[in-house]
Amino acid sequence: MSALPTPLPTNRDENWRYANLRPLAKAKPEAVRVSAPPASVALPPVLPGYERWVFVDGQYAPTLSSSAAASAASLLDFRDAGQELAQQLDSDLAQAGADFSLARINLQREGKVLHVSVPDGAEARLELNFIASAAAAAGTSYPRVQVHAGRASRLRLVERHLSGDAGDSAVNAAFDLALGNDATVDHCRLQNCADGASVFDTLTAHVGDRATYRLRSVTLGGLSSRSTLFVKLAGRAAACELIAASVANGLQTHDVFAQIEHAGPATRTRELFRGIATERGKLGFNGKMIVRETAHEADSDQSLKTLLNGSGAEAAVRPQLEIYTDKVRARHGATTGKLDEQMLFYLLSRGIDRRQAQALLQWAFIEDAISQVELAPLRQEIEQLIAAQLNEVSALDGLVARA
Amino acid sequence: MSLLAIENLSATVGGKKVLNGISLTVNAGEVHAIMGPNGSGKSTLSYVLAGRPGYEITGGSVQFEGRDLTTLAPEERARAGLFLGFQYPVEIPGVNNVYLLKAAVNARRKALGQPEVDAYEFLQLVRARMKLMQMDESFLSRGVNEGFSGGEKKRNEILQMLVIEPTLAVLDETDSGLDIDALKVVARGVNSLRSENRGVLLITHYQRLLDHVVPDFVHVLARGRIAKSGDKSLALELEQRGYDWVLEVA
């Protein structure tokens, strides 16, 4: 096991400018050893039609899971998995991840990898729950998932990161996906760890001809959270939809670096980020869009918006475009602002008190992203968590869908 | 006691004096129309009454049912029974219409010491009012004014007014941008609110609304003050002669 690199990236590195790495630096880098997983963990009901996999501190907890007998997912030893996975995953992308990601730098050489393989033309629904239970001083958990979606397959993947006993766990997750031609993957991730946790993740996705990768990513928890995403639209007419939402309050820092590379012709990206920073919360979203020479007729659309509510709140959204061909459509917009005064006055003029009006407008802002979580029970779960995160459960009663 | 008593009211917007000594009394049961050319202060008057930030009162007084309106926050004015129908209603995606209506009604009921509205009765009431306004029920689940046409927004303002049942409605150019059929629907809504307990202040550019909502009084606002008052025949005269002759007198 290699230790964390010395020194860690600093905020002077523009790709890490908004991340808060201090909590991770304090965590013990060795993998947490779990003798026996807890008998129960607090999880919402299993999503209808989904098989559930639960991992505690990165290790599979069979008694908490309800996986199907003929599951698309299986656990592989990391050592054994290496060769097979290397053939399925994109080596350039893996290298980009390795160059960039703390997860790869601090690779766990032992342990298990959840390997998901959806055969050509098949469908699968998986719910992956990662519970961080141990304190950071006892070690770091390393969830590792590798996904291969076969030709014309359909995968619906739900991924939750939650906290168990300790409030200050360290998590360093790695996801690698390869989408075959005509495959569709709907991937919803929810990070709602305790407010003292450090949650880092790196995701790579290689998208084949006419395949579609839809990622909805909601970040609510963690003292420090950083997602590093690399998506390569390699095939003709490959598409990516990245919808991200984040609420950072207290002393939380939520940072996202998302690089989407258009390599194939007629590739499409739609990227939308809505973030709210309150109190002394900090948000960063760096959306880097690369359009290669080969990607003529590419089409990308970025809309990155943050809302600040509090004098100590900070946000930085940064759309970046690198375009190496002429025939492209690339739209981008980024704003950081406060609550709209006209909207606020409109609500006040209807007798709604100021606090509730402010809560409603924050809600309306973030709903832009949350409404695009298509799976209704999951959307309801997220809406309830957001109302709680905004400290406005009662103010938003009636708007938040009940499960 | 009058519903609304404005005495010698002056106000500035962005440091510029816009209202310049308005006096106006509205009694319960009365409909007053305020007309006047662009820039005469009509919309400013409506915002000053509703308490919009940035509209600063520099002189005079406004009493609403005997209370000093100027000391109340905008939401307190609304709960006290004042309703502003906006000239340009804002869109609030993500907050649906039925939620806003219910929150508004309950805010007013709370101020009146009444319990929250019964969900079933509320929906029945809203449906009946929507029918009157010829609005499809699907509007209820849509975001507030989200993607509504200009006419639909104005109908939605009147719908809100009918559901909230204010004591005094200030309608700022509710007729602008409406075709003749929509104008009739809006007028029907306003007329249905008329009662001996309520007052209406209709702000308009044109006489045509007043064919359908017949006012008890018509006032012409010019250069931030009321230049002339009369009955509904004044509106007809303005329609024929324009505003210049009033401005000359003022």
Helices and strands, with pairings:
The complex is a heterodimer of chains A (403) and B (250).
Chain A (H helix, E strand, L loop, with lengths): L21 H5 L24 E6 L2 E2 L12 E5 H11 L2 H10 L1 H4 L6 E7 L4 E10 L7 E2 L2 E6 L4 E10 L6 E10 L4 E9 L5 E10 L4 E8 L4 E10 L5 E10 L4 E10 L5 E11 L3 E10 L6 E12 L4 E10 L4 E10 L3 H8 L5 H17 L5 H14 L14
Parallel strand pairs in A: 1-5, 4-7, 5-8, 6-9, 7-9, 8-10, 9-11, 10-12, 11-13, 12-14, 13-15, 14-16, 15-17, 16-18, 17-19, 18-20
Antiparallel strand pairs in A: 1-2, 3-4
Chain B lengths: L3 E10 L2 E11 L4 E5 L6 H9 L4 E10 L2 E2 L5 H7 L1 E4 L6 E5 H15 L7 H14 L10 E2 L5 H15 L3 E5 L7 H14 L5 E5 L4 H5 L4 E6 L2 E6 L1 H10 L2 H6 L1
Parallel strand pairs in B: 3-10, 3-11, 6-9, 9-10
Antiparallel strand pairs in B: 1-2, 1-4, 4-5, 7-8, 11-12
Helix pairs in contact in B: 5-6
Helix count of chain A, per DSSP? 7
Radius of gyration computed on alpha carbons of chain A: 20 Å
Note the run of SSEs of chain A as H and E.
HEEEHHHEEEEEEEEEEEEEEEEEHHH
**How much of the sequence of chain B is in beta strands?**
25-35%
Low-confidence stretches of chain B: none
Tally of individual helices of chain B: 9
What is the share of helical residues of chain B?
Answer: 25-40%
